[in-house]
User: What shape does this take?
Amino acid sequence: MIKNLAYGKILLFIVLAISFICMGLVAYSYIYRAICAIRYPQPLDYGEGPILNQVRYLLQGRNYYKDINSPPYIIGNYPPVFNLLSLLLVPIFGISFATGRTIAFLAVIATAYVIYRIVFHFTNNKIASFLSALFYLAIDYVYVWGIYMRIDTLSIFFNMLGIYWVIRYENDYKRLKWCILFFLLALYTRQSMIAGTVGAYLYLLTKNRKIASKLIGYTALYGILVFLLLTAITKGQFYLHIVRYNNNIFTLRQLWFFMSKELFTYTTFIVVSIITSIIWLWHREKRIISLYFISAFLVQLTVGKVGSMLNYLIEPVGIMGIIVGILIGEALKRKNQLILVGMSLLVLLQLANYYYGPNTLSWGWRPSPPPTALDNYVEETKGLILAENLGILPAHNRDIYFDPFIFTQLYYQRLWDQEKIVKDIREKKFDLIMLEFSLYYDHWTDSDRWTKEMKQAMYENYYLVDTQGYIRVYKPIRGGY
Assistant: This one.
């Protein structure tokens, strides 16, 4: 009687039910926060401001891939696909963060569906497929990052869609060639989004070199033509902005800071995914998942570049969910009790690892009323504003005059001269300065966003008038203030 009892399958179903509840709670919290964020009128992340500013430029027919030596000092450090799609939602939401946040949120939901389709293709198991999709919604990096007006979730969606398209239509060239569009959309959303293209085309080279060569050739041709067109239209600035001005300093310290969180949060899934990927290199059909994971895992190492954030880690963790989902689906087809029990223990270990590991859920924005006092300052100030929280300016239909992080990094790389902006500060060109630190406690050191010369000029010519949360508001020193 005990011999015939499917205790392994029962245990695995219990573990998967627990997983469903745990991941479902995080996914629900993510969706709730994303919907709240769409309605939130102020910036939630430093990088949202430049993107909204660029959408404004497009609406006004202006070019933000411009010469960096004349004001306003801004950079278009990504290709334009995300911004162009954001334009489509302006008639609905107006010029606001809601346009890009809606796209980012919908991209997350669409990616989860694509993951479902990929896992179902290999397993024909709805439970495993649904859990893999739910896992993507519950990734702590998605929880934090997937509510922002940022380009990453959209680029990952195009990558995943391209991979699924290759899996689904690899034997139908007429349909297969549409993957070129998806991979180019990924690359022209974020230029470092190459893992899907590399993984898919390496896989196709092992299956049919003639078809693979055609796809690689057409992808390169169309990609280069678009690149040359944008570079010509912007008089060479497109190349400079997305390539040369994006080469920030790489540090092992930053690499370890982010990678250690992934390694200690997803330890079990990382080990399982690496071992499985190596094995699947010899599997005719699953090799594409293996190559995609390896490519994405290597690409994420660029998180060591100064200015990079946890968004670089989303894609490889999402692929881990695909790999484990396929393994669960295969385990459920078998009657081997040891395999079923082993899979149950692996999932339990990862659940415990996630709960006790250094996940980043605490980093996420909590829905709250916006601090309207800062809005009032911007509305009442008629002249130029120098803001560290960049997004508050385009949120009020104001141009960003200076992007402190980007241009401080360019100064450190000797690609830009800070003399003009320091002079502007000394001459009190700005009617208002809004900073995320106190000049009275730090005005003599270099940082990622401000050089010591910039800080010193602000300290000598501006005084603190108000503090709202972590934002300090400064006005120019006038005689007898």
